[in-house]
Design a protein that fits this description.
alpha/beta, six-stranded mixed sheet, 10 strands, about 45% helix, about 450 residues, two-stranded antiparallel ribbon, about 5% strand
């Protein structure tokens, strides 16, 4: 055997040893919670990688939950699937909500969950911004995580996922982060994100957080980069996100699942931002589109119980949680982390309302939550406009500051004609673009 062949053999053996070492390290640390599963305990805290979609896809494989929560980071932080309002026979339950997810991602994870075990009970949190036709896919969303194709046919990707979780650079980085993580955990075993405990809450300027999140909400979430555009419809009146939601509902009807939908109760500052930007008409149209979609699905499946649609947003005693004054900016908010994300205490009220559950010592305000439909939407929206006017009159100082901040952001965003969206739909780099982070 000549020296050339010996070198190749030694080189390949060396590379193999290195790869085996890397795979062994990642297997031992197990950053995605795949290789060392423990008995399910919804209260147990676990560390989950920033590659959350990969981690949750594998968690679904282990749990095969008959109950799931669908939505964005607001639902991931606020909705506890261990709430007693769920059917007792639906267990385990898993919070499948994902930060920065649009309805396509929700639909694909729904398909993935259904391939493992068709869910019998589903709670869906709906966000206006996620129905923007320019709302992008998250940078860590990968079709290869799914057990089924877009059409629902099974596919096998064992070796691809094994490589991704044991031999990829991202897996090494995730292992390093988990190894040096000093907290109790980032998520509960039920998929709900756990907010870190603030050591000194009085040191935080909550007024600044609310005002800052209201203005950063525009270029980061409402009109995401790089195009900073919002269109509820393209030039021919289509919205693919509505179609993805329809597919979830229709498949759930065929499976006989219990589905409950609710519009997320973001703080009223988010609606004030829409009002200042002149987008309240789009918001009202969106609510009507949701009603039309849900009622059409219910009508087409008359033999099954109707799926209710709750509006928990708008102007009510909860969402009008008073923002700290300039004189006392460090006073913590009762229900909110920022204008979009709410605390678990509010998430419990949401589920009390949606599941018609009553717990001693916890009262749901009467004005929090309205089941909307085609018969009451006119009255509901009229009432909301009156309450919005009253709110702006009561909090004139705050609204003046918020208006100034929003207009400063608005000036930097170029206007866009949504009637041109259908043409750009095929060629614009914005469509299908992935962004880092989420909300």
């Amino acid at each position: 055997m000549n020296d050339y062949i010996k070198f190749i053999i030694v080189f390949l053996l060396s590379v193999g040893q290195v790869l085996l070492l890397i795979a062994g390290f990642n297997w031992w640390v197990d950053p995605y919670g795949i290789f060392h599963p423990t008995e399910y305990n919804p209260k147990k805290l676990v560390w989950m990688s920033k590659q959350l979609r990969l981690a949750k896809a594998h968690s679904l494989k282990q749990l095969k939950p008959p109950g799931i929560v669908i939505g964005t980071s607001a639902a991931q932080i606020g909705i506890d699937p261990d709430h007693p309002g769920w059917d007792k026979g639906v267990y385990p339950r898993y919070n499948l909500a994902l930060p920065g997810s649009n309805l396509y991602e929700n639909f694909r994870f729904f398909q993935h969950s259904r391939a493992l075990n068709p869910p019998r009970q589903i709670l869906i949190g709906l966000d206006f911004v996620a129905f923007n036709i320019f709302f992008p896919l998250s940078d860590d969303f990968n079709e290869s995580h799914m057990l089924v194709s877009k059409k629902g046919t099974s596919r096998h990707h064992f070796f691809h996922n094994l490589t991704l979780t044991l031999l990829s650079l991202s897996a090494v980085k995730a292992s390093q982060k988990k190894l040096f993580y000093r907290g109790e955990g980032t998520h509960s075993s039920s998929g709900m994100e756990v907010l870190p405990q603030e050591k000194n809450q009085e040191a935080k300027n909550y007024r600044s957080i609310m005002m800052g999140s209201a203005t950063s909400f525009i270029p980061r979430t409402l009109m995401p980069p790089p195009g900073h555009r919002f269109c509820l419809y393209d030039g021919v009146g289509n919205n693919p996100n509505l179609q993805h939601l329809r597919k979830i509902l229709e498949i759930s009807k065929e499976d006989g699942a219990d589905v409950r939908l609710f519009i997320q109760p973001s703080h009223v500052y988010s609606l004030e931002v829409l009002r200042i930007l002149g987008m309240m008409d789009d918001y009202d149209k969106w609510q009507r589109e949701l009603i039309a979609l849900v009622e059409d699905v219910n009508r087409r499946y008359p033999e099954s119980p109707e799926f209710p649609l709750w509006d928990l947003s708008g102007y009510n005693s909860v969402t009008m949680d008073e923002v700290p004054s300039p004189e006392n900016p460090n006073r913590p908010m009762r229900w909110y982390v920022d204008i979009v994300h709410y605390k678990k205490t509010l998430g419990d009220l949401i589920q009390d309302r949606v599941f018609s559950f009553h717990e001693a010592g916890r009262m749901v305000p009467e004005d929090f939550g309205v089941q909307i439909n085609s018969k009451n939407i006119d009255r509901h929206q009229t009432s909301q406009k009156i309450k919005q006017g009253e709110y702006t009159q009561i909090y004139q100082g705050e609204i003046k500051e918020l208006t100034s901040r929003v207009n400063a952001v608005k000036e930097k965003i170029k206007p866009f004609d949504c009637s041109q969206a259908a043409t750009e739909n095929k060629s614009s780099p914005i469509y299908g673009l992935r962004i880092k982070g989420g909300w």
